[in-house]
Structures are given as C-alpha cells and as structure tokens.
Amino acid sequence: MKPIIVAGIGTEVGKTVVSAILMEALHAHYWKPIQCGLPRDRDWIETMFAHKGLCYPEIFCLKTPCSPHIAARKEGLRIEARDLVLPFCDKPLVIEGTGGILVPLNENELWFDAALLWEAHWILVHRHYLGSLNHFLLTVAFLRQREIPLSGIIFNEEGDRETEEMLLQRADTRCLGRLVWQEHWTPEKLRSLAKEWRPSLLTSLGV
Which residue range forms the structural domain that includes residue 65? Predict the structure, then answer.
C-alpha cells in the first residue's frame, strides 16, 4: 500500500501518538524524515514497541526545536525537498510530518513540497485549542487547492461534536478516531485504540 502521511494543523497536536497507533493498527513501520529538537520522537515510538527495527532513522536530526529552515541554518546545513528520499519498506510506512504542512525547508521550499514526492495517503491530526479551527480550515483549503484528498481526520482531546461534523464536511472526509488526554501513554493503551480505529483505517485506506 501507499505510505501514510500523518500531517498536523500545527505543532504539538499529537502526530507522534497517532503515528504509533497507526503502526500498531496497520503493522507498519515509522519514519520522521526531519526531527527538530530533542529528544527524538523516534525514541518515544521505540519505547512503545517490544519489537525493534520498526523505525527508520531521520535524514535530518536537528537539535534546535524550531522551524526546519532555521534549525538547519543554525547547524550549518541546508534542507532540500529532494534530500528527503523515501526509504525502501516492504511494509506499510507511517511518515510523521514536522510541524504543520507549510513549514519552510529553505527559502524556496516547504515541507509539503517534499511530501508531494512520496505519493502517499494523507491523514490530518486536529487538536482542539483556541485558533485550531482557523488552522484546520487553512490547511484543508491548501490541500484542496493542490487537489490532495484526505483519507481522514484524527481529533485530539474533547471538542464540540457539531463543530467536528462541520469540519469533516468542509474537508469532505471522515473521522478515523479520537484521542482523549492521557497523562502517560502505554503500549496497552495504544493497542486498545489501534483495535478500535483499525476498521475505519482499513476502509479509508482501501486495504
């Protein structure tokens, strides 16, 4: 199957947790091509799975927790979309985005420009916070302008269900799952949600 991009309406919306749940549900591997800030999201992902070797290393692992173009510049590097070559994987591959889809890689290219090269399914993570509706609708409008269909939305934290339905209609897609706040994530909690989400994921991804 095609790779699955876990995109967010911004940063800190729950992409890493969602990626781990998708890995469990789809028996998939994980790749975050650009890491900005430490600790690495890959390190947390690996603690959730007893079986190792499910994660591919980052192409750029940058120490500064900021936009990729700034973090790279601080370390004397330059990121270009063509650098982010999809790893060979004979299993489903979950690709976690860095921040929102329009974060700059350099003065000319965005993270989205690299993602276009991967020919993947797109899943969008929405976390409920003040301003999130604007961020969601702007992201959806951009994807629609570029004729990128969404395979589904993951909602993070409790929100107004009528508003969520409005967002789903505007995005012309379906809800694949909901996250509730957890003080500590465990492999057991991930497995429980993966089992719950799996039927919707398989239908939406055409598996």
Answer: 4-204
How far is it, in rounded angstroms, from Cα 25 to Cα 8? 19
Tell how strand 152-156 and strand 175-179 pair up.
parallel
- The H helix count followed by the E strand count for the chain is 7, 9
According to DSSP, the residues that pair with 157 across neighbouring strands are none
pLDDT digits (tens, 9 = 90+) for 140-162: 999 999 999 999 999 999 999 99
Could you report the per-residue pLDDT of 88-97, keeping only the tens digit for each? 999 999 999 9
Active site residue 52: no
The number of folded domains in the chain is 1
Active-site position among 32, 63, 74, 189:
32
Residues 171/140, Cβ–Cβ less than 8 Å: yes
Beta strands in the chain (DSSP E): 4-8, 29-31, 34-36, 55-56, 60-62, 93-100, 121-127, 152-156, 175-179
CATH code of the domain in which 145 resides: 3.40.50.300
| 36 DSSP β-pair partners | 62
